[in-house]
Each structure stands twice: as structure tokens, then as C-alpha cells.
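protien #1 (seq + structre)
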Amino acid sequence: LPFLSLPSSMHLIQVDSVQRWMDDLKLMTDCECMCILQSKPISIEKDEQNELILSSQHSTCDNLQLLLKRAWIISTELTRIAQKLEKNRWQRVHSMTVRVNCHVRSMINEYNMFTRNSSEEMHQFEKLVIEKCSEFTAFTERCVQTEDEQALKSMKSCINETLTTVAQHFGQLIELVLTHEAQNLLRQIELSDNVYITESAVSSLFSLTQEGAHLCRIIAKEGGVAALFKICRQDCFRCLYPQTLRTLASICCVEEGMHQLEKADGILCLADILTDNTHSEATHAEAAAVIAQITSPHLTFTQHLSSFLENMEEIVTALVKLCQEASSGEVFLLASAALANITFFDTMACEILLQLNAMKILLAACSDKHIVDTPYSRDQVVTILANMSILDQCASEIIQGNGVQLLMEMLFERSSSGHSAEVAACERVQQKAAVTLARLSRDPEVADAAIKLSCIPRLVKLCRSPTERNNSDSVLVACLAALRRLAAMSPDGLEDSDFQQLVKPRLVDSFLLCTNMEESFV
């Protein structure tokens, strides 16, 4: 098991293996040099320093990226040491321990070259980690020199204990380093009234949020949300609003960020930005992205939504307008995603959307291939339609906007790239289109329109052919439900075999029959 979970590993693992080796080569060769020199520094001229030292970067963000990479390598090495220790490969354990020792010293030296205002606590921790690494190296060296199997067996538990201690101290040091750097960036934001300095700090903060949830928690804990909303309340920083809001959306992926947003009265600030027509479309789009993040139905914490309900009507109104006036697919995607999420947690949102003619606006947008240009956008639109379809008044809006035709087209949604994310989006579009048809077909006029557009044969095809639905069980269940609703309205529209297998049995029996069908079944 890994001793330290570092977010940067998420990115590193996805890199081509040769490129990864090239990136790590500098770190590894530095380390081997340090082993030979027993961590003694080389005296070099100042003008040569930038060529030889790993941390010769200009920005704090670049330096932190390198530090995180070094930390990830150390964490990986510690895990490998534990694996070799389990197999009693003492020589290998010792050589890897020496390498970790050098990596740790190098990382600390590199960090101290670019950091500022290091706390006494951090210096103490650095000293402690170096001491523990030295003890660990000395311990493993004794094991290599010992040939007594019984003695080695008794030393093994002590080495395991020492290894765990080193990993824990190292993890705490990294936590301190990241916290310190987040504090420095936030201090810059708090104290500066210079646009360029603030922009640089926000940019660095955003880069840190991309390293994973753990860094987002640190930033939130250190007051990052309040500092960023402070920027969004100052007119002199208007040009920084989009970048600042993007950073806020990233931080609010964690619960700590949500709590801080509530404390900072962030939803009111977002509502003000969305309803202020003097802001740019980019600012409105990024504000919509924050709304989409904090209203995600996948979140398990919803305490912040009480204040959201107070501002919901004006937020929904602004988002519908943004959908209507969107100049690009990306802007439409962000605004429609926010609306889709809002419709999940309150039926009042659906009623507001109906009053605002949102159905007509969304259906019209779908006919513009420059605006609704991906399965992801269609997923948001059909989510809104599915949630609105619980309202009886929705049926007439669908008919007037040629919505049944759109739903029929969505049943044919296929991925053009084959990427897993896009394939999953296509499945969601098919499933929600079938759900919407099933709900709306309680209205005879909608059912009649669906039957005339040959929805029944398409639903039968989706039920019987696993490849048509990409083997998705959720699409199958939704299609069976829609088929049964339409069959109730028009029994003559089905062949007898389809009726006997897909409509007449219990839904679970039809489901089991379809999931066990071979592709050649006709």
C-alpha cells in the first residue's frame, strides 16, 4: 500500500512511459550523484547555478510542480521498499533506502532555495525527516552486514516500524510545505491591490487546485474561498473575475470549499454576478460553472443549498438567459449543466423554467449545431427535459417546440470518438430520452406524435440489440418502460412477438430476457 497519497500521481501515471522516464531521469541522476557525494553540496558559480539545480524555475507554481513530482517519487520508493522488505531482499532494501535518503535531502534543499518565510516548525520537521531517513539508512546497512537469519527476522519488524515513521513524517512535511505555499499565495491576494500580482497569485492557486482534492482542502482550510470572493466583489479586479471564478469552482469540489462558500455568502455574490448585465459572457459562464459545481446531484453534503433556494429564481432566470444568448457551445454547456443540476433538487425550479419558456429556448438551441455540439450538451438538455416532464403543462410545450422529434433523434445518439467519457454521455442521453418519452406519453397527443415518428420500432431495437445501447442496462430499463407506455396507448403498433416478450411479462422478466439475448436474435 502507498505510504503517501499525492495528487500529482494522478497526472503522472497517465503520461507515456518513455516520456515519464525522460522526465524522471534528471531526478534519478541527481540522486545517484548525491549518493556518491554523500549529500555534500557542490560549490558552483552563481551564473551556472540555474543549469545544475532542479528548481531553477521562475514561478512558485513551477517549483511546486517539481516538488510534488519529487515527493511522488519518494512516496513510490517507500512503497517499493515495503514490498522488497516483505521478500527479505535486504541488499535491494538498503540501496533503495539510500536513494530515498538522497531524494529527501535534494527535495528539501530545492524547496529551501525558492521558498520564503519558512516557519520554525517546518525547519524542525525538515531536520526530523532527514534524521529519520539517516537512521533508516544506517539500520538497513546493518541488516546487509548481518548474516544471522534469526537476527534479521527480529530486525524486520523494527525496520517496518521505522519505515512507517519515515513515511508519516514525510507526509506531514509535504502537508506543511503545501499549506505554507497556499498561505503565501493567499497573503498576496489579500494584501495586493495590483492587478498583475493578484492575477499571478490566482493563476498559481488555480494550478494547485488541479493537483487534486487534497490541495483543494488545504486551500479552503486556509481561507481561499473567502479571499477569492473578495476579488469578485471589487470592480478594480473585473478583468480577473473569470479566472477567479474558475478557481472557486475547482475548490468547491470538496466539502470544505462548500462550507467556506456558505460562510463567505458566496451564493449571493454569484447571483449578483449572473444578474449584472455589465459583466462579460466569460464571467457569466464561469459563475454558471461554480453554480453547476455546488449543485451537483452527486454531492453528499447539501447544507449550503438553503441559501441557494433564497436566490434560486434570479439565478435560474439568469442561466436561462445565458443559454439563450450563448455565443459558443462551451458557454451553453456550463449554463445548461447548472440548470440541469438545479432541476434535481427542487421542483420549484422546473416551474420557474416553465414560466420562463425555457423548454422553447432549449429545444431551439438543439437545432443549432454550433451551440449544442456534443453529447455532453445534449445530456444536459435532456436531463432538464426529463425533470420538467413531471409537470403536466410540459407536454404542450414539447409538442409546440417539436420536442418529440428531438427525443427520437436522441434515441440514436452514438459516440463518434469512442472515448469512454463520450460513450457514457451517449448512454445517458439515450436513457433520459426514453425516460422523458415514458413520462410525457401519459399525454395522448405526445404518445400519438411519438408513434407517428416510429419511436416504437426504435425502442424495440434498443431493447433487443445490446450494441445499439452499448450494453447499458439503464438504457434497457428506460426503453422497456417507454415501450410499455406507448404500447398501452397503441397496442396495434407492436408485433406479437415484441408484445409477448417486451410488454406482457413483468418488467424484470423482459429485462432478463433482453440482457441474455444474442446479437443475432431477430
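ok now protien #2
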Amino acid sequence: QLHTDMDLGDNAVKYTLSGEGAGPIFTIDQITGDIHALVGLDRSEKSFYTLRAQAVDMHTGVPLEPESEFIIKVQDINDNEPRFPDGPYSASVPEMSPTGTYVTQVTATDADDPTYGNSARIVYSILHGQPYFSVDPKTGVIRTALANMDREVKGEYQVLLQAKDMGGQLGGLASTTTINITLSDVNDNPPRFAKSIFHLRVPESALVGSAVGRIRAHDLDAGSNAEVDYAIVPGDEGNMFDIISDGQTQDGVIVLKKSLDYETKKSYTFKVEASNIQLDPRFLHLGPFKDSATVKVNVLDMDEPPVFTKPSYSMDVYEDTPPGTIIGSVTAHDLDASSSAVRYSLEWHTESDSSFDVDTVEGTISTNEYLDRETAVQHNITVVATKVIQTVSAVDMDLPPVGQRFFFKSPKELRNRNFTVRDFGNNTAGIVTRRSGFQRRLQDAYVLPVVVEDSGYPAQSSTATLTIRVCSCEAGGSLLTCSAEAVFLPVGLSTGALMAILLCVALLIVMAALYMGQRRNKEKETLMTSKEDIRDNVIHYDDEGGGEADTHAFDMGTLRNTHSQRTSSHSSTSKKEKNGYGDGVLLHLSSRSDDIRSPDIHCQTASIITAMNAKAPLSSRGRVTGGDAEMIKMFIEQRLEESQKGYAAPPYDSLATYAYEGDGSVAGSLSSIEESWVIDDSGDFSSLGDWGQPFKTLASILDRQPPTLTEES
């Protein structure tokens, strides 16, 4: 508020305002002199305003006092939160550092007035990142809070830092930022081999200085701390090799220092040591920073050319010696483990070389024509010893430049186990056997594809097929011939076809044996089923008995005379009770029982029934009387006693398993053949057919009318 002593309160004084913000920001009451702010003020934008005020006469506008200047200051309130101008932050600290190691420092700013109150007083704290790191609440310095943090375990950490004004009190404004902290590597890990022994293979033809193989010791450190130096431990068999370190992969490359020979030594064993180049003294107490492993190198046998016993041979021969005369011999040996046969040939360089010949097997040198000393005193011939069975070459229709080269090889997609192609490097190649023991009777010809490629650009190639025949040896085994020879195989059938036929025949035999076995089992099962049928238990026997031709086992005449016998019996007795047998059958069984090979219970029963018929007739219901029952009971008891003593028991005597039931049973018999025991006196034997087909035949015989017989007959 502005006021002048000349203002007596009669409204004669008017107040005016000018300067910064007069009008849009500040206004004054012309009568009272009160100054008002028209808008909200922000101290962070402008902290004070300079204004001028003056009192004038209300009516005339004449200044009553000189113009005076005053300043309006904007008082601060906490309306700004702290800010991190450079966040997020990145920092690093060496691994394995002790507690309290400095990491970094961060600073937050507050736009509030630091000279007024606590609005700009900032306090720092960690929201995320403990217990690994700590922060100074006043300075914002971050330090390690945990000792010996290992980069190989965890290499990166993220810390969330908060800055809060009002001294961290409740109601203060806050903001956060992120600090990404990385643990830098130190050499705290020695190199280590993944295994204690390494197996390498190298062909004996490998050149000196060529790489044999690679081994590697792993170092968990990074950068220069992971650089590994390799060395072969002196001694053992490591003098044949050397090892160098690959700076890119940190591998140890083993190279050949001397030539190898499979026939001389097949394997080498030595130790290799790996160590760090740069060492950190602080961690030497952890142990030796090196490791060792064993390397075993196996030498592979390669197909090497034969070697002559001497580098040169001298031979003497008289001139005019007849052609075919042997003048000397050369000898070469195959030093490979396979010890293949060596073949000899002449390599012609001049026309005079045709005057000599060499035996391909024995290596003997002979003359082909007469020699003339006056024409040539000395001849130099070249003998080639090889395991090569054939030499191939190629022709290119193009005009090749000087030094045109042909390359021979076998197709990669076809692996031949019998032969291989060897490129001689002089635009020719040879065919070499990969095994021994070829037999002409098994296979007399083989097919080998050969690929030839030129050295032009673009490279052109073609494939040819070489047919290799297996030759036979003569009796001596020295001379090879490839003449036609009979092979003892079936006409029109190969070995494979013959084997297939034999296999089919064997299969048919097995199937037939299985079928017959199943058939026998089926027949046996059917027989057992028949024996177990309850309806046949009484009349089923294994003894078939005699047939019609067996006149001793059964008297057919007796059966044919049954009618006459039954007629006489009928005249004496008006009615006979039925029994299970015809009178003729009873007569036959009782009289012929001694001659029967396998007597059974029917013979014994027939004797009893015959005796009873002679004494008294049966009752009307076919039941026996008391006297008859006593006789039958005595007979059965006698048979049971004999059976229990184990002798005189017929093998098929079913009565041995039953006891006598007694007489006078009211229930009667449950047998299905009870009614068949008695045959009517009328001579009708058709009821016998109820017993089955065999008894139907018997009934038909009994029903026949016999011729008239005399009493003597």
C-alpha cells in the first residue's frame, strides 16, 4: 500500500503506478493506494519487480510529492521437485573391489530458493540396488556396499536413486533416476582345459609346418585378462610338434615340426601347458594361473608308393644276346601296413627303351631284341614300381594355356570301399585298391566312376566310368591272366538269386512243419473231447476187437442161430424178462470168453445171466430176484477184491470203480441204456440201433432168418 502524509482522507489525492509489471501483473487502487497482483507469480521465472509510484492532486493532476521507486520480491514456496539433468547414468567399478569403493556421483537440482526455507534442500536415497551399493544422502556419491562382487557370476547391476527436497521430510517433492553399473574385469581366473586328454589324428603324409589340430583352454576373464599362452612341456614325445596361440580364438594350434612315418611310430603323447600372459598380483594367492593337459596324436597310415631296395641298379649284358634273355632284376617293397603287391613297368623316354622289358610281378629285366655295342654302349632305363592297378589320363579339346592342370577324384556322393583314385599331379591319376582279398568267383568286375576337372575359369568337369576286372592267377601264382573263365554257378542264376531261392525253400519247410504240428494238436484235442463225452463213458473202449475176418474172437454162426434158440426157449417159457443181451450173444460170450484176447466185464456178466436164465426167469420189470441179486453181489465183491489186490484186474474193468448198490431199490436205474438190456422175445432186434451205428449193423445181422437146420447142426 502506498500512502502520503498529504492524503487527509478527503479523496483529494490520487496514486499512480509505473514500472515492471505495472498494468498486466500489478495494479493500484488510486484512492487507497493498495497494490494488487493480477496473476499468479512464479519465483523460478522472476524473483522481483521494480516499480515507481507517485501521489498527484485528484483534480489538477499536479504531483504532490516526487516519484518514488520500490521493489516487490516474490517469496518462494516449495513448488518444484528436484531434477536429474543428466540421467540415466552409467558407471563401472572393478570386480572383487572392497566395500566402500567409489563408483560415481550424481547431483540433482531444485528450482526453489535455496536461501529460503528447506524447499531446495535435497536428500539422496537408494530405492533399488541394495545391498550391493550405497549412496551418501547429502553428496549423492555412490559406493560399493558388498565386497568381492564377481563379474563372472553377475556383471551388471541397476541402481534406482531418489532425490527428495524439504530435507527428505514428509510432504517433500521427489524424483528418481537410474544408474547402470558394470563390473569391469580383473584377472582373477586361471585358464582351464575342458578335458584332461585330447585325441588328434594326422596322416603320415602331412607336411612339416601344417596344422595337426587345435586345443583350447577356457579363461572366464575377458579382454587381455583372457589371453592364453600355450607351450609344450619339454620331454616325452613333443619334440615332433610345436604349438602356437591363436590371438583371435585363444586356441592352441599344434603344428608338425618333423616328418611322420606310420610304419616307424604310430602315435605320440605329450603334455601342453596353458597360462595367462598378464597376471594380477592381488590374486596370485588364489593359486597358479596355468593348467596342463595331455595330447595324444595318432598317425594315420597313408597309401605310400613302393620303395626300391637301391636307388639305382647296374646290369651287364653281352651284345647279340638273344631276345628274352634276363639280364637282371629290381626289387621294391610296399612299406605300408597293408603290404600290397608291387607291380613293375617301364617308363619309356627314348626309342631305345623299347629294347627292354620288365616282368610285372617279378621285376626281372629282359631284352626284347638284339643289342649292338657299336650302336649304344650303355642304356639308361626307368623302372616304375607301383600299387596302382591302372593309370588314367584326360584330354581337353580346348587350347589350354601353359601349365594347364587336370584334377582327378572320386565322386563325393559315391563312397567306393574297393578302389580309390589317386591324383599324381602330372595330369594323370592311378586307381589304387583299398583292400585285399578280391575273389573272382564272388565278383569278377567292378565299376568305378572317375571325375576329372580342369583348372580353367569357370572349371569344367566330366565323369567317366572305369570297369575293373578281377584276374585269375596261374598255378604258380605269379602270372596274371584275364582270359575268359567258367564260373561255377547255376545257369542263368546269380549268387543273390540262388540265395533267395534257398531262403524261400527254407521258409516253406518251416511253414509245413508248423501246419503239421497244429494239425496233430487239433486231432489230439478232438480225441480228448470224444473221450470226455459222458454219453460214451459206459460203452467206450480202446480195444477195437476182432472184425468179420477174425473167426476166433467172435462166432458169427452163433449170432445167426439166435432165432432158433430163442424159439425153443420161447416154447418152454411163455414170457421172458428183457436182459441186455440176446441169447445168441450170451451163448457166444459165455462159451468164447476164454478165447477173447481182451476179456471184459461183459463176458463175466454174460456167464451169470446165462446161468440165471437156466434157473428162473426175470421179473416183469427186468429186476433180479433175491437169489439172483445175491449171486451178482458175490461176483462183484470178488472182482473188487481182486482189483484191490492189484492182480487179475482187466485193464478196462469199469466195475472196479463201483460198489454193489444192493437190491430192492425203489428209485430204479438212471442209466440211459436200461431199456436196452432186454430184447423182446418176438425176435425184433431193432432196439439195438439205439446204441449207435455198430449196433445197427448187429441188429441187421440178428434179424436175418437163418436157413432150416437139423437138430444135429
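The chain has a mean pLDDT of 77.
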